[in-house]
Amino acid sequence: MKILHTSDWHLGHTLYNYDRTEEQQAMLDQMAAVVAEQKPDVFLLCGDVYHTPQPSAAVQTMLSDALVSIHQAHPQMAIVMTAGNHDSGAKHEIFRTPWRALNVYAIGQLEKETPLHHIIEIAGKGFIVAVPYVNERNLPDGFFQQLLDRVAERNTAGLPVVMMAHTTVRGCDFTGHDHATEFAVGGIDSLDLQQLGDGYDYLALGHIHHGQFVHSGRHNVRYCGTPVPVSFDESYSHSVSMVEIERHGASPKVQEIEILNPHPLVTLPTAGMASWDQAKELLAAFPHDIAAYIRLNVEIDDYLPAEAHQEAARLTEDKRCRFCHINARRRAAAKNDTEVLSVQEFQAEEPIEIARRYAEFAGIGFDENMTAMFNEAMREVKDEN
Q1: Residues in Cβ contact with 261 at an 8 Å cutoff, skipping those fewer than 6 apart
Q2: Cβ 324 vs Cβ 293: under 8 Å
Q3: Residues 254/225, Cβ–Cβ less than 8 Å
Q4: How far apart, in whole angstroms, are the C-alpha atoms of residue 23 and residue 29?
Q5: What's the mean pLDDT in 178-197?
Q6: pLDDT interval class at 333 (50, 70, 90)
Q7: Burial of 129 by CB count in 10 Å (0-12 exposed, 13-18 middle, 19+ buried)?
Q8: Rounded to two decimals, what is the model's pTM?
């Protein structure tokens, strides 16, 4: 079975109020081109199709047109699309029946009473176990394993078994995600890999934007990553994963196919920080003909000049690039100095890091038990909200 694994399209995402339709459409066109060339048996879209649960009509039309184009690129291919935490699971399934005419399976909500809803048999090729995002508290114990056991009963021919999920797996590299810790990324608590059951040949994951394998001992658990960067901190290549599995029990072969972005996200300087004057020089020297988004990393002693953003915008008025943001950081304080955080730095800190800072200041040991209690309190606050 040959599979195209993608996720986290975040259609409708804007970057510092800049519309990104052009680059999102370019990504969708490349998806259809990859399908036409590679002719996979299955196309997996593992959640976060949209950036918000209430996408505009134009964004929904963009997805519909894209699915039609992808289907037409290889009509024999099945398309399996699950909802992520950014999607509305209920809305995801509204057009489930008409989508089947284009060989599209839309799985938006967890069906506890009808688990076969999540098992899709690709005739003569294999099985897809499609699980959408669901809050861990609403996930029945052993649900993933129950689905895999159902597949095992039906898989008498020894066909490949692929499971797809949208979640955080403990031990993944969450580089590029804001406010992320080993305990939660993007509002999703981390699961141990063992909680996702045993019996799949490939686990196709969505949610983490950095493409990677997660250690399983079999090299068969993978985040494909987002095909278009959502933030400047996603400073790595973006791609789709082409996966081939010969039979049940065989190791998958994976090839990354890069997706090119006509509007790359560029940070100046490319490494480290610059003074405000140095940053302005870099911005002024940036080529006029490159269509990019620009972030400046600036090290300051006190505060940025009040007119800094307007000055940066003026430096790009006659260029194709778009100035977005100044990431200002204070110089590291000497050990004997009291550390001061700007409002921006304070907002960027995780709550647990603020708590650790306070504990250190107060001479309190912040051990594993205190960490666990703090995380439980944070979960309760989130649930109440």
Answers
A1: 23, 26, 27, 228, 229, 238
A2: yes
A3: no
A4: 10
A5: 91
A6: low
A7: buried
A8: 0.86
